[in-house]
Design goal:
With about 230 residues, the protein is an alpha+beta fold. The chain has six helices and 15 strands.
């Protein structure tokens, strides 16, 4: 994915949120399952006639993005899935995405994910189908898992007390991948969660927006922070 494509994605991320919600509703109605609304959304669902209508036919940016994601068209099944759930069921948001005062150095630094605090041992779940890349200790991340979701989309999970997956494992949305902890560069038990597109960190909030997330923001205590150093 080129730099221009990344810019288009960032400018249109609010629309992706709307499509994910639409796709979840479509899956729910056809599968009649309580879990379907919380699963990752295949790109084939997003490219349906209903999703196209929601986007609007005069949206060349999104047509370009989907063309890029589809790769070689119908010659090969699209493997892309989009993160569309919370990695932790109950948490307190202690640090948002973007610039903040570094908890170790006190200076302004870019925080490339969300810090989601909870007790040590809190279960952590994959937010979309994918294949595990690294599952290991990784510097400031501590015990770390990365999951590749297709076409340059990746989620990262750091500071875990214990891992529950191995490298190269195939996982489904909602699978248990590890447990919350305070390993690596951390001031307390929490999950450092990232979403990356073509290697660049983007704000994870649109992928997990819900009333629960808004409540977690209000409960912010600021005592469990961390993340890899810039």
């Amino acid at each position: 994915m080129t730099e221009n494509m990344l810019v288009l994605f960032r400018n249109s991320v609010s629309k992706i949120t709307a499509i994910v919600i639409l796709g979840s509703a479509m899956i729910f109605s056809t599968a009649a399952s309580a879990e379907a609304a919380d699963s990752s959304i295949p790109v084939d669902v997003l490219k349906s006639q209903a999703a196209e209508s929601a986007l609007g036919e005069a949206d060349p940016a999104f047509r370009m993005i989907f063309k890029n994601w589809a790769g070689q068209g119908k010659q090969e099944e699209v493997k892309l899935t989009i993160p569309s759930r919370k990695p932790v069921k109950d948490f307190t948001l202690t640090s948002s995405y973007g610039f903040r005062a570094d908890p170790f150095k006190g200076r302004r630094a870019n925080h490339k994910g969300l810090d989601m605090a909870g007790p040590i041992g809190t279960p952590i779940y994959a937010t979309a189908d994918g294949i595990v890349g690294r599952a290991q200790w990784l510097g400031g991340y501590g015990n770390y898992v990365e999951i590749n979701h297709g076409n340059g989309i990746q989620t990262r999970y750091g500071h875990m007390s214990r891992l529950n997956v191995d490298s190269n494992a195939r996982v489904k949305s909602g699978d248990l991948i590890g447990f919350m902890g305070s390993t690596g560069r951390s001031t307390g038990s929490h999950l450092h969660y990232e979403v990356r597109i073509a290697g660049e960190a983007v704000n994870p909030v649109p992928f997990m927006q819900s009333n629960d997330f808004l409540i977690a923001q209000k409960l912010n205590s600021g005592v469990a922070l961390g993340g890899p150093a810039e």
